[in-house]
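Minutes, methods subgroup
Present: GH (chair), OT, SY

1. OT presented the first of two proteins processed in the latest run. Sequence and structure tokens recorded below as shown on screen.
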Amino acid sequence: VPEVTDFHSSLRHYLGGNPHSAYAEALRALYIRLRLSNVDQPPKVLLVTSALPAEGKTSLAAGLAVSASQLQQRTILIDLDLRRPNVGREFSLRSDVGVVELIAGNALLVDAVQKDEESGVDVLGVARRHDNPVALLTSRRIDLLLQELREHYDCVVIDTPPVLGMADATALSQAVDAVVVVFRWERTKQDAARAALKELQDVSAKIVGAVLNQVNMKKHAYCGYGDAGQYYLEFSRFYRD
């Protein structure tokens, strides 16, 4: 996914104001590829994680959700990074009730979900943290919640903690349809990427793709890796508004 250096306030503002940017096009292409990863039964519940912190997983999860909504999909974004939640900050959520209260049975879905009017995305954030995130994420209530969300939404995007050093993402991977792992351009070491993928593979997680995030497209095109990114400069002259 291309690096974006001209965010004015937030990602959803940028995508709404720049629907034909390279970043927006990359997100749409990613979402469509995820859907086509299983033509007979397209994945509906998508888990986004990374190998390490600061690789852009939350931004990618939010971007995927906004992109899906722009494609007329009923979409909800869930913050299940209970250790360091950031979705609420991106979408300016109120903090009185959230996903922890919902899973614990202390709130209803209608009370916890907040609509972002600008993007059309429903958001389920974190109002308070939990002392034992893994226990919460492996509880029967998670399965029941996702079952309910499948009935109401076309696309469910879940942001989770990084894989290495924490069990949250691997534990939750059994309850979703597809897992996307984010790696950061020129920052994530190969050993870390391999280790993260192995941890997910060891629990038979449904990994459908790995995303190289925050890519400097000009540098990428100059290096000539032989993929679509190599032609970014040519396409940008004709297709960007």
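2. SY then presented the second protein from the same run.
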Amino acid sequence: MRNSRLTYQNFIGQEDIVARLKAFTELFNASGSTPGPVLLIGEEGMGKASLAIAVANERDVGFQEVDAASLEIVCDFTMLMTNLKPKQILLLSNIHLLRKIHFKGFREIIQDGKLSMLIGQGPAMRRHTMDLVPFTLVATCPRKMDCPTEFLREFSLILSLEPYSVLELQPLVESIGKTEGISLDAGAASLISRSCDGRPGNIESTLRRVSRAINKSTLTEEDVLQAFKAFGINVRLDTPKNLLDNLQDLSGQDFEKLIESLLTRMGFQTEMTKTTGDGGIDIIARFDKPIFGGLYLFQCKRFSPDNLVGAPIVRDFYGAVTADRAVKGILITTSDFTAQAREFAQRVGVELIEITQLQQLFLEYGLTTKMEE
């Protein structure tokens, strides 16, 4: 359902994304033309639909949301395109699920504003081309690499949403709770925000589950803890100062998943490799930002405190980074590095992250080492 009150000004979080959308739409408003197509990248629940609604409200135009997977046959696509209202926002969710038969049509519409269709059968079949009303396509997908390359270049603006911090989520918890008729004390709001994995879309369902289980319209911190315990949700009230012991309790793969969560919160689009845990490249990540954007490779070493990472491991990792032409290789360990390893890494440009730096990153981005269910 469209929220008619949602605007750039009252949108919580994603400040950089909102600023870029505002500048983008203001450019077209000044010229009197319709904004070009926009691609919003982010996992489910990150607020992509809410951003598209904010754009529609700012421009005071119509809004329609369609899941790309629902466009099964050509008639579905044709009916959608021929029933658009002038200047409206069309939110096409999950564009990576769009069937191949529709890609050509969408590209033609974006490039020329025209829709071609075949009418009739057999010898009487003919191609009919019609002009469509100007509209703005806002498409979404989980990762940039999910969108076909030939379609990717058609977007005027590509934006990657970043996971929300706990501080950004907390006012959203309170606001959504108010809408749902649920009031929360500060402790309850904080706990729910910590359980949402940086995604605003998880708030509403979590609130409803807790409220239904406790059977109260006013929730305290104790209420939420009781419900979370029953649900099997583990949320730490505070991040421990010393994470080393906890890290050693994780399996190698769980440690890599934890690092992947950290990278996602830092703005990377990540993918764990199939050969994870074998000493090769564990995580492939892309950073879609100016100057520092590109491919990054990560290797994770879960060693005990007295087992330092030596130069041979760094040298082998550097070879893989060079072969894949990555912007940078980052080697992360739960222990530390030998002097020779650090010297070699500095010479070739490999970044090394040891336990103390890792602890600081966890604290900065609000992560714990306990894998939440």
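Chair's summary of item 2: Residues 238-244 have pLDDT under 50 and may be disordered.
Next meeting: continue with the remaining queue.
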